[in-house]
Design a protein that fits this description.
The chain is α+β, with helices and mostly antiparallel strands. Helix content is 41%, strand content 16%. The chain has eleven helices and eleven strands. A six-stranded antiparallel sheet has the order 1-2-3-4-6-5. The protein is globular and about 60 Å long. Keywords: Kinase, Transferase. InterPro entries: Aminoglycoside_PTrfase (IPR002575), Kinase-like_dom_sf (IPR011009), Prot_kinase_dom (IPR000719). It holds the Pfam family APH. This is Aminoglycoside phosphotransferase (APT) family kinase protein.
Length: 305
């Protein structure tokens, strides 16, 4: 989520004032929608592109995660309604502050408080068992639940890699020589993986989605949904190492540092982490824009090269 200075003429602020929340104000915006603080302890999310009729799955996902003992808070839906075809959910407010704000550059040497917080979150999420709701989720950009027709995460991910690469194959191939071979090798390597442990995967552990207290301890993890599913905790670790600093001047060094740390402390093989990073690039390359003008597309293409 990113903080915003939107003025009080925001139509949703006026909507919440009419709903009995005179102190409502716009708080932050992200991929899923815009969040408004209504009063102490309660926020509302105005969802972007989420159909009201399929929201029960999100409610169940949040409940499955929040029902497991964790050392930090996670979202919980209190109520939901539809207004002018837009889904509005009411949720408990999670505390803390973002570990790093959107656009804030990390230090050249990642501080211990950041790496300790990441290890705490990764270990905790790896303890949350998979559920039926998690297996029914659709990864953003796809047209079906990830697990549909599959009984193993690696097989489901391989099939998604093949579907996603075909969505805008020409645009990606123009930037990645030998793309067909990259896709084929990645899918084959995924299908060759042995059975792995399964737990919830957040899929977007970027600094604004991890809130900490003054001492740097994680107190909340936000914004499940972009790439949330159930699967191998190594996938979560691989993606986190890659996206924690995607565009900074030390991004490559930070990814390598976190990859080594997660391999050592969490027991993941570095070659498996590298494979999952490649898969992540292939399933998300076109979700924000296409072509070299888009930063995420450029990042994915560079990784695949």
């Amino acid at each position: 989520m990113t903080e915003t200075d939107a003025h009080e003429s925001d139509r949703w602020v006026e909507f919440f004032v009419r709903r009995g929340y005179p102190r409502a104000r716009r708080l932050a915006s992200g991929m899923e929608g815009t969040v408004y603080r209504l009063r102490d302890g309660t926020v509302a999310k105005v969802w972007a592109g989420r159909a009201p009729e399929d929201f029960d799955l999100t409610r169940r996902l949040y409940a499955d995660i929040a029902g497991h003992p964790l050392p930090f808070g996670t979202p919980r839906i209190l109520d939901a309604e539809e207004h002018d075809g837009v889904l509005v959910s009411y949720e408990r407010e999670l505390g803390g502050r973002p570990l790093r704000s959107e656009g804030e550059q990390p230090a050249p040497d990642l501080p211990r408080r950041e790496t300790d917080a990441l290890l705490t979150v990764l270990r905790a999420l790896a303890s949350v068992p998979g559920s039926e709701a998690m297996r029914r989720l659709v990864i953003q950009g796809d047209d079906r639940p990830l697990w549909q027709g599959h009984s193993r995460f690696s097989d489901a991910l391989a099939a998604l890699v093949e579907r996603a690469a075909g969505r805008n194959l020409d645009a990606l191939a123009a930037q990645v020589p030998g793309l067909a071979g990259v896709v084929s090798r990645t899918a084959s390597s995924l299908r060759a993986l042995p059975d792995r442990p399964e737990s919830v995967i957040h899929g977007d552990l970027v600094p604004p989605n991890l809130h900490v207290d003054e001492a740097g301890h994680p107190v909340a993890v936000l914004d499940f949904g972009f790439c949330t599913t159930v699967g191998d905790p190594a996938f979560e670790a691989a993606v986190t190492a890659a996206v924690w600093d995607m565009y900074g001047p030390d991004a490559d060094r930070h990814t390598a540092e976190l990859t080594r740390l997660f391999a050592r402390e969490l027991g993941h093989a570095e070659e498996v982490l590298a494979l999952y990073r490649t898969a992540y690039a292939l399933i998300t390359y076109d979700l924000f824009g296409m072509g070299p003008h888009d930063g995420h597309f450029r990042w994915c293409a560079a990784l695949l090269r």
